[in-house]
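Letters spell out the chain; backbone shape is given numerically. Take this protein:
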Amino acid sequence: MTFILNILHRDMSILAADRKAVAELPVTATPDISVHAGGGSINHNYKKITLNSTKSLALGIAGHTQDHYYIHEIEWSVSVDEVLWKIRKHQEGFLRFHDRTGLSTLTSFMANQGIASFFDQQADTYFTNTFLFSPIESQTRLHRGRDEVQIFCAGSGSEHFKKAVGIEDIDTFKASIKISCTPDACIPWMQDAYRKISANDPGSGAEAVFVVSTRSNPKFRNIEHSG
């Protein structure tokens, strides 16, 4: 239950994630925790974006946290290729093709989704890797940055993206940054999208965390946004 949003351009990548997470069981209350009506609790400052050790890649994940136990390996990884290999290895290991008897009794499950973005110096452009995996399925696709903006999303909020934000608004935004695509031009629109998504998806938060990488400063860094 989350919303991961990525804006990809040949010269820039912005990855965003909401801060909201619903715990299965009650936890001790803190300033970031509130009681959930169902008896559990809501964490309003949950970390959903991970950077590798050199900050050359940013990864946003959606799905059950316990299904992404490889996150610490990502944080220790140095190269982009190392991170992408670990993601693929985890996807393959998550499949239960060998346990077809167990799969026959599987009644429901949540697909895990992720977005990894990075700058490739040799190719001289940004890339985004979108992926999805579950006990019965594995998908991955590599997207190359272009001169025009591409928008990718993952998580429960992605099902509401086009309807909540509006296709006309999305097209207008993409046209407005066709000449000058900068973080300052993109992040306010992205934050507004989070507010609209959260009004339609109870599992997604209204406030987002942003990490940005640009050709002039390729290491991913946190960008504060208010308003």
In short: The CA atoms of residues 7 and 151 lie 5 Å apart.
